[in-house]
Amino acid sequence: MSTWKKVLLWTGVILLVLILAPVVAFFSAYAVTKVPEPQELQTNQIATIYASDSSTQLARIVPPDGNRTDVDLSEIPQPVRQAVLAAEDRSFYSNPGFSVKGFGRAALGLVTGKESSGGGSTITQQYVKNALVGNEHSYTRKAKELVISAKMAREWSKDEILGAYLNTIYFGRNAYGIAAASKAYFNKDVKDLTPEEGAVLAASIQRPSELDPWTNRQAAEERWNYVMDGMADMGAINGEERAHAAYPEVIDPNTIDTGSEVEGTNGLIKSQVMSELEASGISEQDVNTQGLKITTTIDPKVQKSVTDTVKNRMQGNPDDYRTAVVSIDPRNGAVKGYYGGDDPNGWDFANTGLQTGSTFKIFGLAAGLEQGMSLSRVYSSAPVTINNLTIQNSEGESCGSCSLATALKMSLNTSFVRMQHDLKHGAKDTADMAHRLGIPTEVNGEKTLQEKDGQVYDGVILGQYLTRPIDMATGLSTLADNGMYHQTHFVQKVETSSGKVLLDRSNVEGDQRIDKDVANNVISAMEPIASYSRNHGLAGGRTSAAKSGTAQLGDTGNNKDAWFVGATPQLATVVWVGTNDGQPIFYSGRPMYGSGLPADIWKQTMDSSLQGDGYMAFGDSNSSGSKQSNTNSGGSKKTYTQTTTVQQQQPQRTRAPQTQAPQPQQQYVPETQETPAPMPQAPDNGGLNIPTRTQEIVPGVEVPVPDLGNNDEPAP
Question: Is 367 helix (H, G, I), strand (E, B) or coil?
């Protein structure tokens, strides 16, 4: 064979290989490639958080790739669909899912190594690129795109591909999917788009950032005319419609609510919702891909009462004053109103451990009543001496000797110190009762209402240990609903964009934690307190059960935490007022007590929230959820080991929200005496020089804290 013939032969072989290699590679890849079913492909979508009316929007959860809400193809007007075909793929319903010319250029690119080789992408290819293979500039990516597109066109219907494409493609203005684009350009639902408006959206797909009519009207309108002409050529519109078509006006992109931000305390509610979803088994992937509609328990009327009251009552106070307000429906545990601060990404004081002061006496009283004591049982209110430390009542208040009901109304520390000493297990019984009524046994892995070695010191009944406002509201709610505990929750219902229900709390189970009579007796003792506390009784004489409390700042004579907690049968509200870093608080020029600003906030919130609602009496069986009886009425003790589903947030700033609980002194051994022995380590307040120590609450910042740090309410 001549040299010339050999050259021709090898040249032919090489050309054949060059032609066949990409073809063989394509069909080999085609054979082994699996195309997901339409329902298996999940694209990121926004999730929306609503108030309990299912229409008041509180927040939106926007995934990283933008704002997307999937809609069914049937919801997209036919002319709008045809506008997209006219812009991007006029042969969509007849082509094999890829461009033959484009495939040839892509195959040549695989051989020659030229990245620029390739062709115009079909709608199927564009969808595959966005949903499956990504946007990497490589031959491998392009080859995968072509293979999957070809196979998808055989396994999916054309309508399935078009519907998926329209819900995925980027239209500019941070709008992913045609539903989001309809809002972003015209502020209307996709079903209401006109053919002209559909053409505006279709025209933007090619170069979204460059073809926004707000910033580049000329180029956008040129592309729009191309789309409209294509619609006429395809028969989507007739000649007269094309001749009279006018370019529609779009909205200012600066006025678009992207939903990526949330205002005020709604951001803190959003954080609570996210924690609760996770605890309920709804994953982050579910939130990001299923277009969730999350209906919360937040009542718009109650929430407005809370936020309006906070704004009104906190105005004029020092800038570093902070407050927290939590309102819960005692009948089912639903959080109706919530305020933990104004910064949507900041510190949540409603979810922060704080010293509760005398509000904790209600749990000690419940423990005593369960053990057979009565409200008429008499205790001395005289000062109590423990290990050379004299405990007194605020401003020398005294009743001589009086009933527990009177001692609670007057908030007499010494009477409750003596009562707690008579409990079978002392301070531990108070802590156990608080846990049973709803105070979590642990928060973020830390045991509550006890020391690190497990001991409970006597200051528990006077609010020595840190408790979160939301947990105080839970405990109060249990008492207000006849001793029936309901898990506190923010989420009422969760649905996917397709209507599938992932979570429904329309029927919340209750757990009878203490005997109904015990709970109602505690409530009975609390009923006079709102009016007794500087005339804070509710409007119209509505019955309430309340308690105030204050925590003292060391031996400074000032206070750092002030509380007012109170309930009706249908709403329990807890209010705390303090500062960022445990500094002294004042009201009307005097040290602040719970019966001051906190009680003002409580009364205004309750009056406004309950306006127009019927009057209800305590003791009725009003729970909306089903009940399980686990009553402990003096028999064997049941141990409750609940933990919280509301996550205690971690410090985000160079400060702690409050001082820590005081260090206990040596355990007291009661003296032999005729009168009931005093409870050891009871923190107290007013008029008493209590030894203090300094505690570093954040690096470089120290404040004085009491060894037995608590204050009580002075008589009004």
Answer: helix
- Tell me: pLDDT of 147 over 80: no
CB atoms within 10 A of CB 151: 18
Element (H, E) at 181: helix 178-186
Contact between 646 and 272 (Cβ < 8 Å): yes
Q: How far is CA 621 from CA 226, 327, 474, 481, 543, in A?
A: 70, 20, 18, 8, 16
Distance CA 23, CA 107 (A): 8
* pLDDT tens for each residue of 536-553: 999 999 999 999 999 999
Q: Which residues share a beta bridge with 563?
A: 549, 576
Q: Identify how many contiguous H helices and E strands the chain contains and give both numbers.
A: 21, 25
**Judging by beta carbons within 10 Å of its beta carbon (0-12, 13-18, 19+), is residue 34 exposed, middle or buried?**
exposed
pTM for this predicted structure: 0.71
Q: How many CB atoms neighbour CB 528 within 10 A?
A: 17
DSSP three-state, residue 325 = strand
Whether 516 and 482 have beta carbons less than 8 Å apart is answered as yes
Angstrom CA distances, 182 to 2, 65, 105, 218, 257, stand at 71, 17, 35, 21, 13
**Digit-coded pLDDT (tens) for 474-487:** 999 999 999 999 99
CA 42 to chain centre: 24
Q: How many CA atoms lie within 13 A of 197 on its CB side?
A: 22
Distance CA 426, CA 382 (A): 20
- Nearest Cα to Cα of residue 262 among 274, 250, 280, 248: 274
Query: Tokens 């999730």 appear where?
Result: 47
Structure-token pair, residue 87: 């812009």
**CA-CA distances (angstroms) from residue 337 to 301, 499, 574, 618?**
9, 27, 10, 21
**Strand duo 293-296 + 559-568: pairing:** unpaired
Tell me the HSE value of 267 on the side-chain side, using a 13 A CA sphere: 15
H helix runs in 96-157, sequence order: 100-112, 123-128, 139-155
Determine the Cα–Cα distance for residues 123 and 102; give it in Å rounded to an integer: 13
Determine if residue 700 is left, alpha or beta; phi over 0 gives left, psi from -120 to 50 gives alpha, anything else beta: left
- C-alpha dihedral over 346, 349, 354, 359, to 10 degrees? 180
Are the C-beta atoms of 302 and 327 separated by less than 8 Å? Answer: yes
Label residues 407-445 b or e (16+ Cβ within 10 Å = b): bbbbbbbbbbbbbbbbbeebbbbbbbbbbbbbbbbbbee
Q: Which residues, 6+ apart, have CB-to-CB distance to 601 below 8 Å? A: 309, 310, 313, 323, 325, 564, 575, 577
Are residues 79 and 101 in contact, defined by beta-carbon separation less than 8 angstroms? Answer: no
Whether 72 contacts 48, CB under 8 Å: no
In this structure, are residues 592 and 580 in contact, taking their beta carbons and an 8 Å threshold?
A: no
Q: Is 690 helix (H, G, I), strand (E, B) or coil?
A: coil
- 613, two tokens: 């609602």
Condensed to tens digits (0 to 9), the pLDDT of residues 403-453 reads 999 999 999 999 999 999 999 999 999 999 999 999 999 998 899 999 999
**What amino acid is encoded at 155 in this protein?**
E
Active-site amino acid positions: 88, 358
Q: How far apart are CA 86 and CA 326, in angstroms?
A: 55
